[in-house]
């Protein structure tokens, strides 16, 4: 009789796993970088940076007809940052990157709750920022609708940063986390409709940033910023056209804008060409409100050059940017490719000296896939103009002769249970 119960129990467990899907995978991603002008003009007196960092992730998911749960744990390690015999991890880089549940509500509706990545379109305004080892996540609640070629997402977030659970009994909800446009509240609506060769989306995003009274302690509501815009994508045959148009306004910003256009053409099965421009508005010092656009939570490393001179933790509330670029992608073999891109930068408005030209950047990225892993190599060179030295606060006489950046990255993504 006991054997029958055991067999019945095993059958029930097998039935449960048959009706659900459990996945377990990971990522091991070390990257070595030589920084001799990455992100800013490096003075000749300064030494170039050289270091290796590693992203380690463990992802697990469990899916049924009613819901899905996903958890992603990650640690970011810079080689040598901890002593060899260490009592603890001193950099506190271990984190829960994602932890969310998505519940199927039926008829195309679902809700997704918890810590999650939020990414749309080409990630110009909202993206994962996966190039950075830590990447970006949000603590948010989403109501989602998806049917056919139409989708709608409604997102809501309200952030707190007190560490003591007893803080729940207090009436204050002051949010003291600052930097990188950390918001206290967020609400957005995203809609997208796709057709055979064309798709268009609309984003309505409102973010609230904590405001304090003159004492710097007492909360005084929020400064709101609205970002409204569209992403258009056309692809037919060998021709592709992508356009972005966004406007920002709010309590401290008015009439800020971003306009971008990308053209691509597959001239041969293994050669693709691209050209485009992007213009972002800058600040008018005579205005009572800023007119400088900032692409907020986008994957800004993808845009305006891989050396990250603009909008990657920098270039906020300053002159705008005009970026004109051309690129070529070469498929060298079934497993390798080469990307070459040249970008010319100038200010959307003049610098105080009257200079407008900022310089030209050249980016090269080689990618190679192997059995079970991949390797990417990159090199970038900045040819700065006088305006770039002025913008970055380093005189041309003080700057190093060459401003460059090189990197190598290995990616292994094992599938333990799939």
**End-to-end gap:** 35 Å
Counting DSSP H or I runs of 4 or more residues, the number of helices is 2
In the CATH scheme, what's the topology name? Porin
Strand content: over 45%
- Please outline the major beta sheet: 18 strands, antiparallel, barrel
Helix content: under 10%
Mean pLDDT: 92
Secondary-structure element sequence? HEEEEEEEEEEEEEEEEEHEE
Describe this structure as you would to a colleague.
There is one protein chain. This protein is mainly β and 418 residues long. 6% of the residues lie in helices and 53% in strands. It has two helices and 19 strands. It has an 18-stranded antiparallel beta barrel. It is globular.
What does the secondary structure layout of this molecule look like, with pairings?
Blueprint: H1 2-19, E1 21-36, E2 49-63, E3 67-78, E4 95-106, E5 109-116, E6 138-147, E7 150-158, E8 185-194, E9 198-212, E10 219-236, E11 239-250, E12 256-268, E13 271-280, E14 321-331, E15 336-347, E16 357-370, E17 373-384, H2 386-392, E18 403-412, E19 415-417
Antiparallel strand pairs: 1-2, 1-18, 1-19, 2-3, 3-4, 4-5, 5-6, 6-7, 7-8, 8-9, 9-10, 10-11, 11-12, 12-13, 13-14, 14-15, 15-16, 16-17, 17-18
């Amino acid at each position: 009789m006991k054997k029958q119960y055991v067999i019945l129990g095993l059958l029930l467990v097998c039935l449960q796993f048959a009706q659900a899907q459990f996945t377990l995978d990971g990522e091991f991603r070390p990257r070595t970088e030589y920084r001799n002008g990455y992100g800013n003009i490096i003075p000749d007196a300064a030494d170039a940076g050289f270091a290796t960092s590693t992203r380690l992730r463990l992802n697990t998911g469990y899916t049924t007809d009613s819901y899905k749960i996903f958890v992603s744990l990650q640690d970011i390690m810079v080689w040598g940052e901890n002593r060899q015999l260490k009592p603890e991890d001193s950099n506190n880089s271990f984190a829960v990157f994602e932890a969310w549940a998505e519940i199927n509500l039926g008829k195309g509706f679902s809700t997704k709750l918890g810590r999650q990545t939020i990414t749309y379109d080409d990630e110009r305004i909202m993206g994962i920022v996966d190039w950075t080892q830590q990447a970006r996540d949000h603590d948010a609640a989403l109501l989602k609708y998806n049917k056919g070629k139409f989708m709608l997402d409604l997102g809501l977030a309200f952030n707190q940063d007190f560490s003591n659970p007893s803080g729940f009994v207090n009436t204050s909800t002051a949010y003291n986390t600052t930097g990188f446009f950390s918001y206290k509240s967020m609400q957005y609506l995203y809609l997208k409709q796709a057709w055979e060769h064309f798709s268009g989306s609309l984003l309505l995003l409102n973010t609230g940033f904590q405001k304090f009274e003159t004492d710097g302690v007492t909360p005084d509501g929020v400064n709101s910023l609205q970002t409204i815009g569209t992403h258009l994508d056309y692809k037919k045959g060998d021709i592709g056209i992508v356009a972005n148009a966004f406007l920002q306004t709010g309590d401290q910003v008015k009439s800020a804008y971003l306009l971008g256009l990308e053209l691509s053409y597959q001239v041969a099965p293994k050669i693709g060409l691209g050209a485009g421009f992007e213009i972002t508005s800058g600040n008018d010092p005579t205005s009572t409100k800023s007119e400088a656009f900032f692409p907020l939570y986008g994957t800004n490393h993808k845009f305006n050059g891989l050396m990250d001179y603009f909008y990657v933790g920098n270039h906020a509330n300053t002159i705008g940017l005009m970026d004109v670029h051309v690129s070529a992608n070469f498929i060298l073999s079934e497993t390798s490719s080469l990307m070459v891109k040249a970008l010319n930068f100038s200010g959307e408005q003049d610098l105080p000296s009257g200079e407008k030209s900022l310089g030209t950047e050249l980016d090269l990225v080689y990618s190679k896939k192997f059995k079970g892993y991949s390797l990417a190599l990159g090199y970038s060179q900045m040819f700065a103009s006088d305006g770039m030295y002025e913008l970055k606060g380093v005189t041309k006489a003080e700057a190093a002769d060459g401003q460059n950046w090189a990197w190598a990255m290995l990616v292994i993504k094992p599938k333990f249970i799939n």
